[in-house]
Write a structure and sequence with these properties.
about 290 residues, alpha+beta, Thiol Ester Dehydrase, Chain A, 10-stranded antiparallel sheet, 10 strands, globular
Length: about 290
């Protein structure tokens, strides 16, 4: 099967399943650096089984279907594929333990031309297997650099939100642990790029990099702790574009702008290298 819009968007993925526990919840939070203030009740509720609560951003790792981009019939040149954007919508609070089903789909593909590649939009619904209710929808934007030029029509991705030209309303700084990538990979992404210095060097990095989804989670916790007063039930959705990697041990500075009562815009950077690592961020919250 060649790389084309109809074949990709009609592809039927096998359901993925996962049983996650309180231990998985705690490990995910620790992998984001939560618990760096171990006597802070706001931190402790996500890393201690007494009164344990779930960070909504855990939705991005639940019921993942594995390395689906390598399915031969999809025709994706996965070696040249980049994960450039991530989104998450929470439909109901995620419990501290559950059995979940993942139902994946390719929502759309945009051809940018032979020299610019294609943009692929992947989505996954995370469903409570006990009740059949929808917990979360996970979105990924993937740049398939080796698959452009498959269509006679080209297109562009949706326009990203623009940040206000004023000082941010809130700033959060998180110093990541040197071993953060080694912790975070235990939540599912075991890519050696995040652990093996030799693999990182071959990919052109000075040392192993932090997972993009870990940076996503750090920004999510900055939102929850800094603007939502740890009220996870106010978290509705979060979307962002990845622009540069973070090296474990670096400090991530996340800046937030309140657009209206239900919308917060943000970006994150590593100021020591003057690098924006997350851009075009937008969060929806409950009032």
């Amino acid at each position: 099967m060649g790389f084309n819009h109809t074949d990709l968007t009609s592809h039927k993925f096998a359901e993925s399943r996962q049983d996650f526990t309180a231990r998985d919840n705690i490990l995910y939070a620790l992998g984001l650096g939560v618990g760096s203030e171990p006597t802070n009740a706001g931190h402790l509720q996500f890393v201690y089984e007494k009164g344990l609560r779930t960070l909504p951003t855990i939705g991005v790792v639940l019921a993942h279907p594995g390395f689906w981009a390598g399915i031969p019939e999809l025709g994706i040149d996965w070696v040249k594929m980049l994960h450039v954007g991530q989104g998450l919508t929470i439909h109901q609070p995620i419990p501290t333990a559950a059995s979940v089903i993942g139902r994946s789909r390719i929502a759309d593909v945009i051809d940018r031309g032979a020299d610019k590649g294609a943009i692929l939009f992947y989505e996954r619904d995370v469903i409570d297997s006990a009740t059949g209710s929808l917990m979360a929808t996970v979105r990924q934007t993937l740049l398939c650099r080796g698959n452009g030029g498959f269509s006679t029509a080209t297109g562009t991705a949706p326009e990203a939100p623009k940040l206000p030209e004023r000082a941010p309303d809130h700033i959060s700084e998180t110093t990541t642990l040197p071993q953060m990538a080694l912790l975070y990979r235990l939540s599912g992404d075991m890519n050696p790029l995040h652990a093996d210095p030799a693999v990182a060097a071959k990919a052109g990095f000075a040392r192993p990099i932090l997972h993009g989804l870990a940076t996503f989670g750090v920004a999510g916790f900055a939102l929850i702790s800094g603007l939502l007063n740890y009220d996870v039930e106010k978290f509705r959705s979060m979307d962002v574009r990845f622009t540069a990697p973070v090296y474990p041990g670096e400090t991530i500075r996340t800046e937030f702008w309140q657009k209206d009562a239900e919308t917060i815009l943000f970006r994150a950077s590593v100021t020591a290298r003057d690098k924006t690592v997350l851009d075009n961020g937008i969060c929806r919250i409950a009032t």
